[in-house]
Design brief:
This protein is α+β, with helices and mostly antiparallel strands. The chain has 2 domains: 215 residues, Jelly Rolls, CATH 2.60.120.10; 110 residues, Homeodomain-like (Arc Repressor Mutant, subunit A, Orthogonal Bundle), CATH 1.10.10.60. 41% of the residues lie in helices and 29% in strands. It contains 11 helices and 12 strands. Strands 1, 2, 3, 4, 5, 6, 7, 8, 9, 10, 11 and 12 form a 12-stranded antiparallel beta sheet that branches. The chain is globular, with a radius of gyration of 21 Å. Keywords: Methyltransferase, Transcription, Transcription regulation, Transferase. InterPro entries: Homeodomain-like_sf, HTH_AraC, PchR_regulatory_protein.
């Protein structure tokens, strides 16, 4: 099973991977590889993790210009594709139309021995894709849906297709799992168990969203949707900041009403509920995994008064931070 990426203009092979059949690794261990992209194509990386039935790939690349590459793959795969930032498209004889992704979109793709060309466009490209062996994927596919049955039949007939012609938006729950996968620092069999669970959870969310088509509809204008995602990104990257709703809205060039209404429509929660939840999740992770004390953690997530942090943490988890810290200290 081989995947090859090459540049037809210069005749050079950029990436060539020979994967075990059905991504099988005899001893059950994980195989990993990081490929670095260098000028003139851009700067960045693509990290691959491979174990039985599953291949995970994620990367972040900065581009100066559009990139056009050619690809060849001699195997079948079901791909859970998540476009976090940037635009990409693939053109292949397997599909009647070009398959294009924009920022914040996801879908599930069945590809049968594909070849063609891919184009990447955007100052920053960030993607995560999970390729599953088709027989393994079908075990998770419910049977009480015309959409899922049609996709199953396409796999069995080896007809490349999208599970749904329209891409869906990446939800907050999906973002959390994607982040967990990207930043997983476990080793060996524990990493594999963890990633297997996260892949199954992510697939569940994708299939649920597809089953409930209402979750993918939106009355927001595309330009407003992009601004709301930009607020989400700002929050994730600036947990120690304290901004008003007006500050956040003005930062991305919208107004308070559009931000408030749009955030709720896209993510099913308010801006500040999301900000608080992600602060508490990060604090919990630091308490369990790090050596920082409660005052330091409180400051890192934007609380000047540790008592206010403790109150918010107890409201979220029904446990004060010092109790969790002490329990972690006993087991470490």
């Amino acid at each position: 099973m081989t995947l090859r990426l090459y540049d037809d203009k210069i005749g050079g092979t950029l990436v060539e991977r020979k994967y075990p059949n059905a991504y099988f690794v005899n001893d059950g261990d994980i195989k990993e590889c990081i490929t670095y992209l260098k000028p003139p194509y851009g700067n960045g990386f693509y990290h691959e993790i491979c174990f039985e039935n599953v291949h995970i790939g994620f990367g972040n690349v900065s581009l100066d210009n559009k990139i056009l590459l050619y690809f060849e793959a001699d195997f079948d795969s079901v791909e859970m594709h998540f476009s976090l930032k940037g635009k990409s498209s693939a053109l292949s004889e397997n599909f009647s139309n070009k398959v294009s992704f924009d920022s914040y979109q996801h879908n599930i793709i069945y590809a049968h021995q594909m070849s063609g060309q891919m184009e990447f466009d955007g100052q920053e490209m960030q993607i995560l894709e999970i390729n599953l062996a088709p027989d393994f994927f079908k075990k998770f596919l419910p049977e009480d849906s015309d959409l899922f049955n049609s996709f199953r039949n396409a796999i069995e007939k080896q007809h490349s297709c999208l599970i749904n012609p329209d891409h869906n938006r990446i939800s907050l729950e999906m973002y959390q799992i994607l982040n967990d996968i990207i930043h997983c620092d476990r080793k060996g069999i524990f990493k594999r168990i963890y990633l297997e669970a996260k892949v199954a959870e992510l697939l569940l969310l994708q299939l649920e969203q597809l089953f409930n088509s209402e979750s993918s509809t939106s009355s927001l204008l595309k330009k407003d949707e992009e601004k709301i995602y930009a607020v989400r990104d700002f929050i994730v990257n600036n947990l120690d900041q304290n901004c008003s709703l007006i500050d956040l809205a003005h930062q991305v060039g919208t107004n308070e009403f559009t931000l408030k209404k749009g955030f709720k429509a896209l993510f099913g929660t308010t801006v500040f509920n999301f900000w608080n939840d992600i602060k508490m999740e990060q604090a919990k992770k630091m308490l369990l995994e790090g050596d920082l004390n409660i005052n330091e953690i409180s400051e890192l997530i934007g609380y000047k008064n540790p008592r206010h942090f403790s109150t918010a943490f107890k409201r979220k988890y029904n446990l004060i931070p010092s109790k969790l810290k002490n329990v972690n200290g006993i087991h470490s």
